Predict the structure of Aldehyde dehydrogenase iron-sulfur subunit.
Amino acid sequence: MNPPNSAEKRRETAQNGAERSNVSLVVNGARHQLELDNRTTLLDALREHLKLTGTKKGCDHGQCGACTVSVNGERINACLTLAVMHEGDDVATIEGLGEADHLDPMQQAFLDHDAFQCGYCTPGQICSAKAVLEEIRADLPSHVTKDLTAPIEVTDAEIRERMSGNLCRCGAYANILKAIHQVAEERA
């Protein structure tokens, strides 16, 4: 008999009425075993249980993007998903991108262009910005992509559309745009 997959484990947990589950997450390359209330969001698992506080809780309704992380290579709002839904998944947070003496190119570009003011939204902005360039590189169209038969270009319109889920109350959008363009040009 094969061991149950994660969907079967979630179904079994729900049927048994368990209120807590053991969840295994790979966060920034390190495996973590957590016992969590089934209602714990991925955001709260990261912040409260793993003490990775770089990912911010902004609106807690998926409207601001401050909690943006990457799960299995795709960006998501960590406040909108339960941790138990990500059994075995690979989660990347701002803490996994670079170190103080060796920043990720996107982190460096944000510094170079002063692409933040208060800094609260910056971790989510950086995680989204990295994903935006990967989406464009993979030729995944957005709502503003004009030609679906040609490689997608890194334009202001593409970046703005793709970053529209990340809000900055300080209004650093022009500098965020410059930072993303800098990294795109460095990669070209």
User: Anything to note?
Assistant: The domain at 6-96 is CATH 3.10.20.30 (Ubiquitin-like (UB roll)).
